[in-house]
Amino acid sequence: MSGKKTSKAKLISKGSSKKVGKAKKLSAPAKKLLIPKKSITISKSAKIKAVSAPAAKSKKLKIEDKYLNIFLTQIGGERAIQIVQEFAAPASDEDIAKRCKLKVSEVRAVLNKLHNYGIAVYERSRDESSGWYSYVWKMDMAHASKIAEARVKEDFSVESTQSSIEQGCQFYHCKDCGNASPKIPFETAMDYSFKCPQCGNGLAFYEKKE
Ligand SMILES: [Zn+2]
């Protein structure tokens, strides 16, 4: 055994000392690289698949309502927007978890919170062969927009602003929206994570000019 080992070691040292041996070793990986390149260009079906898959993935539900972003985050947490955006079409919680790279339990928790407001709704269906039930979720965005708008209006109503003034509250406003920005009491600004409900930029402390 020991005799064989030494002979092998000798062979290796011989090869590495020769320049020809090194050159051969280098040329080998270069050839290997050419093979996958060729196979990609040859198979047309593989190319089509590669193009269509990301296109389907990028199809996302757009949240255009200015109040909706903030409202969904308020009720569903920081992952809410990311999850809701995946509902361009009905999907299972497992599908969404895979796409968002989240735990299924995390997705379910957000869906349940949105379900409490009637925004996330599910349909149960039974697989005839396996007997298992599956749940497919979808988003009622028209309903979500209605609630969001009502909530924001309530937050900035004359009564709530008036009572804040009486309480001697500190106010915040959005410099970007300027005169169009409401004066937002501290408590409400905190609910909005100090982000403008109209444009999403940061709210600044509002100093009364007297
Ligand atoms: Zn703003």
Please outline the helices and strands.
Elements: H1 2-17, H2 19-42, H3 44-58, H4 68-76, H5 80-84, H6 93-100, H7 104-116, E1 120-126, E2 133-139, H8 141-155, H9 158-166, E3 171-173, E4 184-185, H10 186-191, E5 204-206
Antiparallel strand pairs: 1-2, 3-4, 3-5
Helix pairs in contact: 4-8, 6-7
Bound molecules: zinc ion (ZN).
**Strand content bin:** 5-15%
Distance between the termini: 98 Å
- At CATH level 2, the architecture of the domain at 61-146 is Orthogonal Bundle
- Oligomer classification: single chain
* Small molecules bound: zinc ion
Q: Rg to the nearest angstrom?
A: 30 Å
Largest sheet: 3 strands, antiparallel
Classification by helices and strands: mainly alpha
* Major beta sheet, strand line-up: 4-3-5
**What is the CATH topology descriptor of the domain at 61-146?**
Arc Repressor Mutant, subunit A
- Note the total helix count: 10
* Total number of beta strands: 5
* Secondary-structure element order, N to C: HHHHHHHEEHHEEHE
Helix content: 55-70%
Low-confidence blocks of residues? 1-56
- The CATH class of the domain at 61-146 is identified as Mainly Alpha
Question: What is the mean pLDDT?
Answer: 75
| Shape, principal axes of CA atoms | elongated
